[in-house]
Each structure stands twice: as C-alpha cells, then as structure tokens.
Amino acid sequence: MTAIDVSPADLAAAREPIATATTLPPSFYTDQAVYDEIVDRVFRHSWLPVAHVSQLAHPGDYVALEMAGEPIVATVDRDGEMHVLSNVCRHRWASIVEGRGSAPALQCPYHLWTYSLDGRLSGAPRMDRVDFDKSGCRLPEYRHEVWNGFVFMTFDPGIEPLAPQIAGLDAMVTSWRLDELVVSATLSETADWSWNAMVDNWAENYHVTSVHPDSLEQMTPASLTEPIDNRGEPWCYARIGNTPEYQATIDRPISTLDTDQTTYSAAGVVFPLLCFFTFPDLAAWLHVRPTRRVDELDIELFLLVEPELAESEHIEEIREAQLKLGRSVWEQDAEMCRRSYAGLRSASARPARLSHLELSVWQTQNWLLDALGLD
Ligand code: FES
Ligand SMILES: [Fe+2]
User: Fold this and answer.
1) Pick from 128, 231, 295, 310: CA 20 to 30 A from residue 37's CA?
2) ipTM value of the model?
3) Is 92 in the pocket of ligand 1 (CB under 6 A)?
4) Is 111 in the pocket of ligand 1 (CB under 6 A)?
5) Could you tell me the fold of the domain covering 48-154?
6) Which residues contact 362 (CB under 8 A, 6 or more apart)?
7) 77 CA to middle of ligand 2, Å?
8) Extents of the domains making up the chain
9) Tens of pLDDT, residues 222-252
10) d(Cα 296, Cα 71) in Å, to the nearest integer?
C-alpha cells in the first residue's frame, strides 16, 4: 500500500525533458503520508549530511542532530576514529547528548549511563543487583563516508558508497578544498516548509534577480547562470559568473583555485540534502535537517573560509559582513518559500512549468522519482 497517488499523466509530465516538463504534483511537497514514505523509502537509503570535518577535528568532538526524527551523534574517539552512532540511550531511550561539543565520553543525563566515544557502554550505575552484562550493550553504529569535507551517514548498510556515485560533481568542486576550510559563521533557523521546497529554492538562480536584487544579483546574477547536466548522477550544480564589480572585491581567493575558477561561483546539492554554494573566497553550507513533519525543517547555515583567513586580524569584520549578507538573503528566501509553500497547499495549485534556469528542480524531481521507483 502506497500513499503516493500520482496520476500517470502527472508522472509522465514530470519525466518529460525540461523543455516540456512540469514539476511534481503539490502532494509531493505537502502531504504528510507522501513525506513519510519518502523518509522510509528514500532518505533511509540515501547518504545524508551530518557534519563538516572541521567540527570533528579532535578526539572527543561530537555533533548531535536529528535526521527525519532519528537522533544520531557523530563522534571522534580517542584514537581519532570517526563514528556515527544512534543517540538514543540503550537504557530508557533518552537522547544522550545535544548540539555540538567535546567530551571524554557520552553520558546520558537521565540515569547517567556512560558510553565511550565509539559507542560501547562503559558505565551503568546501580545495575549490579540485576542480571545485566554491560559488555554486550552498545549504541548502534551507522555507516559514514567523508566527501570533500562533509561527513555523510546512511541508515542502510547495503547502499553503494557515495563518492563513485557523484564523481562528475567531485571533479568540479575538489579545487575548493572544502575539507580544509573552517566554519567562520553560523546562522540557525527553522523553516515551516518542506525539504524539497528548500532544496528547490537553494539550487535555482532564477529568483536571484527579483528576490536578491541588491545583494546576490550584484554578485552572481541570474543572467550569468549555467546549470550543468548531471548525466543522471544524484546532484545538481550551476556555475554562476561573478560580476566584474564583485570580482574586484575579492582580495584573497581560496589559494588552491586556478585563475578561471576564481571568476565564478556555484550552487549545488548532493541529493537529497547537502546544499552548498562556493564563492571564490568562501563556501556556504545549508544544513537542512528534516524533522518528522513534512512542513518543518531545522536549518543551519555555515560559512566556511580558509583557516589562515579565520585566524587573521580581520576575521571579526569579515564574519559580521558574512552574517549580514547571510541573514538578509535568508530572510528574502524565507519569505518566498513561505509564500510558495502556502500556495502549494491551495486547492488551485497544479504541477508547474519550469524555466531552463530551474534545471535543478527538474533534476531533483527525476532523482526522487527514480529513488521511489516511479517511471
Ligand atoms: S535513559 Fe539513559 S540512562 Fe536512563
Ligand atoms: Fe535565494
């Protein structure tokens, strides 16, 4: 029994080449039962981003988060080995840690069961009068893979490794050395729209002229956008030429870029959820964390720079300018996501036509339909 009730005509229209295609029907964005099925059949069998390596640089570092309602924690153990573990206590199910931090072990606040950073239960007070063997108890561990500095996890032990699936994208982003950048600024937000409404907004540069006229349109305008054919790989990516005015403001491009690479920026997504943007001197990562609800996301925007810049005397000024831009762009996008999502819930909403600048929307929907086995 499936909750996904899509007519053959709507399915065929979404599968057309972009020149004639329409979007997915609104229910793919708004229906809780459809979303639940996407979580079960797609997210739980995909590679999902959990952290940037700079957040897991030292033994004891941890990053805890929920991914579609599943509490997980990424850790670095004493030997420097990374783990992605269930963050659900094996005693009576409390989440063990929250947020980001560093600790010698993971201790559950409810009854103080303690786990080593690789997930083994190392302490369980007052369990000596019952028949309990703590050596047989540990947090479940999930597969993880690091790609260009982003730590991905999957709940599925059987899926293909990530890197070979996205080799075409790797070739385009590797020069940015995203694994060597460090977080310079962070913004935390919640969003009351769906994961795919968020991804659609992030990856298309069509709206930049109208929604960000005083900021991004002056830097990376819609008119200089070149969406790239992903040849069926699970990503989207658009190269966006920098305006001469913006180009002139870049003092210190990322040192590993060649001259041509310093002349453009790019927006990309590794499906379903790794949203990133590269500028010549900066990268942005929108960490989209779906919850159990179709219309609720936890969002963090991370801005990443070279470590030398992060340590420079100007970093406070730079951070302030980055946050100011990040906040204003986010507010402009949030307003449009809200309006569009309200419209998606209207009885009059229908599958929509797409501009060539929305190739990313088309690529996302085709990937999703493939993942759901809908042809
Ligand atoms: S729920 Fe974690 S120690 Fe009891
Ligand atoms: Fe935007």
Assistant:
1) 231
2) 0.98
3) yes
4) yes
5) Rieske Iron-sulfur Protein (2.102.10)
6) 18, 21, 354
7) 38
8) 8-46+163-372, 48-154
9) 999 999 999 999 999 999 999 999 999 999 9
10) 16
